[in-house]
Amino acid sequence: MIRSGAIVQPTSPLGQEDKPKGLVARLRSGDQVARMIVLLAAGAIFLITAIIFSELVLESKLSRHQFGWRFLVTSTWDPVMGDFGALPFIYGTLVTSALALLMAVPLGVASAIFLSELAPRRLSDALTFLIELLAAVPSVLYGLLGIFVLVPFLQDHLVPPLQSLLGSLPIFSGAFYGVSYFSAGVVLSIMVVPFIVSVSREVLLAVPREQREASFALGASRWQTTRRVVWPNAARGIFGSVFLALARALGETMAVTMVIGNATRISTSILAPGYSIAAIIANEFTEATGDLYLSALIELGLVLFAVTFVVNGLARLLIVATIRRGHSAA
Amino acid sequence: MNFFELRKAAANATMIVVTGAAALLTVGVLLFILGYLVWHGAQSLTWSFFTQLPAPVGETGGGMANAIVGSGKVLIIATLVGLPIGFLGGVYLSEYASAGAGFALRYVTDLLNGVPSIVIGIVAYALVVKRMGHFSTIAGGVALGIMMIPIAVRSTEEYLHAVPQMLREGGLALGRPKWRVIATVVIPAALSGIISGVMLDLARVAGETAPLLFTALNNQYWSTGWSQPTATLPVMIFTYAISPYPDWHRQAWAAGFILLMVVLAVNLTARLIFARKRIATGG
User: Fold this and answer.
1) B150: which of A176, A285, B9, B49 is 20 to 30 A away, CA to CA?
2) pLDDT tens for residues A143-196?
3) What domain range includes position B180?
4) Which residues in chain A touch residue B211, judged by CB atoms under 8 angstroms apart?
5) pLDDT for the residue A65
6) How far apart, in whole angstroms, are the C-alpha atoms of residue B130 and residue B8?
7) Three-state secondary-structure class, residue B36
8) Do A107 and B26 touch (CB under 8 A)?
9) Would you say residue A329 has pLDDT above 70?
10) Which long-range contacts (CB under 8 A, 24 or more apart) does A125-132 make?
């Protein structure tokens, strides 16, 4: 067994500097200068990430002092009276992201399994290429399609039969205006599917081929191999891909802003209009009159940053752990 | 065939069909999206879209010439901000970093990549717009530049890392300093990959809207110089799409078509450049 770090972590390929050479000699050869330059760039990346956090904390001071932790659990949003609570937006962000994952995860993971384990290689390559290309479509275009194609479709064809069937349930009750938590969830699910597919497929492909071959040699079918050999190895990484998709859904702005309905209240029904953290920042930031108003919006940004930071951090750990395990077993 | 064999074959066939259907549905939805954007967008396109300024509210006609130029200018600033840091950071990761420092930088880069774009917008507002006192092309460029860094780092690192170790050893054996080996041997060997990575990076931020909303803002007229607010294609699409005017909706589709074509063309070109290089070197 090879030490896993040796493979996943590219160690300095040129090895250590020669010991005997003095600083002056290395300065003259330019090596020390080059090292300083790239170190500076690396340091800048740490610095930028730190600045993002500190700016959000500094600029939201007014609002944090005024409302304290109450900001997170109250639901008044009244710019005129200067009273701000984040709950409707936190709720909307969580509901739309949950809806998105509910639809996107089964579809995305099944597609990834098909592409990496069950499909013929050429078909798999072609479909993967298409899916990755479509991950490049800008989010504002998903919003455009959301407004002019999805919303009318939901209004005319999907929601009326759904309500006549399940309208008595609180989550499907009330009038449907087209823009809603549900519409935002559908658009988000379409946007994150390519992510889930391409990351999950990568994780599945990192499972060593020998393990599959051993399973085939024992007479297992492709599906049995997938379920009993590949899946247990890849499961953590696939959870990682789901977390990545979640982080993206939580922070997605344009597409959600265009179809969520911009209503600053909390509704049980997913067919009612709502709001999300990113959407209210996008809509009200330039119109924010007064320092407290702006500061409250920036505190919303801080909340969003903190949540996606944690979710992303978790996702990366899961994916790194899985891919590294796959490599070290090879 | 006994019962167990039969059940095994049936389960196998069922799962191939089920997961295959999922993959088809995914690709189908995405193809529909692409097709609809192209079909509807191309119909909405007119010549004046490229040559004229936006028409005043309520009038039909006009174009988005200023937004096309504005997007280009914002992307120039973004490249100037994001590319040097991202490229050099990638060189550090591949050629200089110890295992521990490399892991930390990679982790931070991934987290920076995951910061929601609207949050980057807020930070660019606080850092640039507040200091300058007004919205500007530069502020928009800084926001997009920060967004470019993570992908520039990771793609540069990936392609440098794929350069065979032998090339480095050969250069060092000739007595060259390490930095000259990197600059004259390693980087040129990985250049096509790095360029394709930068192109994909640019294509990604070209469609970003949220970070521009309160940095570059918007502008109904030409934006001269670099310190005025400017129109950009993504923000125009957003503004026009949520407006109540049918003619603005048509122009939003036209702008969406242009944006999509640019993004897809850059993506395809970047993938072709790298694919051809890979075939040429047989690696």
Assistant:
1) A285
2) 999 999 999 999 999 999 998 888 888 889 888 999 999 999 999 999 999 989
3) 48-281
4) none
5) 95
6) 66
7) helix
8) yes
9) no
10) A127/B23, A127/B27, A128/A197, A128/A198, A128/A201, A129/B271, A130/B27, A130/B30, A130/B31, A131/A193, A131/A194, A131/A197, A131/A198, A131/B26, A131/B27, A131/B30, A132/A194, A132/A198
Task: Mark whether A199 and A222 lie in a shared domain.
Answer: yes
Say how far residue A94 (Cα) sits from the centre of its chain. 13
CATH of the domain at B110: 1.10.3720.10
The yes-or-no verdict on residue B223 having pLDDT over 80 is: yes
Q: Is B10 on the interface with A (CB under 8 A)?
A: no
pLDDT in tens, A222-233: 999 999 999 998
Model pLDDT, residue B1: 62
Test A251 with B16 for CB contact under 8 angstroms: no
Q: What is the ipTM of this complex?
A: 0.92
Give the DSSP H or E segment for A71: helix A70-73
**Claim to verify: residue A137 and residue A209 sit in the same structural domain:** yes
| Token pair of A139 as six digits | 């989010």
Q: What are phi and psi of B2, to 5 degrees?
A: -85, -175
CA B34 to chain A, closest CA, distance in angstroms equals 8
CA distance A79 to chain B (A): 19
Instruction: Determine whether the interchain pair A111/B99 forms a contact, defined as Cβ–Cβ distance below 8 Å.
Output: no
pTM: 0.90
User: In angstroms, rounded to a whole number, what is the distance separating the alpha carbons of residues A282 and A258?
Assistant: 10
Q: Do A38 and B89 touch (CB under 8 A)?
A: yes
Average pLDDT over chain A reads 88
> First vs last Cα of chain A: how many Å apart?
8
Tell me the nearest-neighbour CA distance from A143 into chain B, angstroms.
8
Is some CB atom of chain A closer than 8 A to the CB atom of B85? Answer: yes
A45: domain range?
Answer: 19-59
Please judge whether B118 and A278 are an interchain contact, meaning their C-beta atoms are less than 8 angstroms apart.
yes
Domains in chain A, number: 2
**Of residues A62, A90, A80, A86, the one with CA closest to residue A288:** A80
Q: What is the mean pLDDT of residues A235-245?
A: 91
Assess if residue B2 is contained within a domain: no
Confidence of residue A6 (pLDDT cuts 50, 70, 90): very low
Per-window interface: B 118-157 vs A, CB < 8 A: 118-123, 125-127, 146, 149, 153, 157
Structure tokens given for B17: 């069909």
Interchain CB contact of B201 with A (< 8 Å)? no
pLDDT bin (cut points 50, 70, 90) of residue A260 is: very high
CB-nearest partner of A305 from B22, B119, B168: B119
B11 touches chain A (CB under 8 A): yes
Residue contacts between A and B (CB atoms, under 8 Å): 293
Tell me how many domains chain B contains.
1
- Does B93 sit within 8 Å of A52, measured CB to CB? no
